[in-house]
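Team,

Forwarding the record for the chain on the shared tracking sheet. I've put the sequence and predicted structure together so nobody has to dig through attachments.
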Amino acid sequence: MIQQVNLFHPIFRKQQKKFSAKAMLQAGVAVLAGIGLMYALTWWRLDVLRRQAREVDQQQAAAASRITDIGRDFPVRQATPALAARLLRLQQRVAASKRAYRILQHEHFGSTGGYSGYLIAFARQDVPGLWLTGLHIAGTGRHMTLEGRSMLPDLVPRYLQRLSTEKILAGTDFAVFRITRPQRPSGKGALEPYVDFIIKTAGTGSGAGVGHD
């Protein structure tokens, strides 16, 4: 059986929907409301950025004011010629001290412990009736001269023997040994009740590094 269908029948035609004026008005209002909301959000963000920028400007102004106050309260002092000259002298003294220290550290100077050890050794070996009137040490202790007085001549060799027990004086060779009895200032051949002595190491000259009289 064959049945014909008429596609042009009104029920098979595509129906076109038409927007009413009310729907279009509602759509326009919605669009305008969205635009207004976006504008309000943008304006709010710009206002926040403006406030932050003002706060940064205020902080910079406060910092600049503090720097100005500090510069006024603590001005930079210009170096005066006298102060510069004094600084130069101090620097030269420091440099000279460093050079002297390097020289003393050189091997050919032997002991670099200073003279305090010698002075302690002489002070420790005290002999009653004998005293030193002069002590001269040159260089690092290789050259020394001892001058003194003794109530008895025999005390001088005893004193030297006691000095030889000091570690710092071990091996010291005293090449000059002289004892004299001085005359009294009144003259007439009268002699003092004590003797003067002088003891020197080999090669000791007139120069002295440390002296005591």
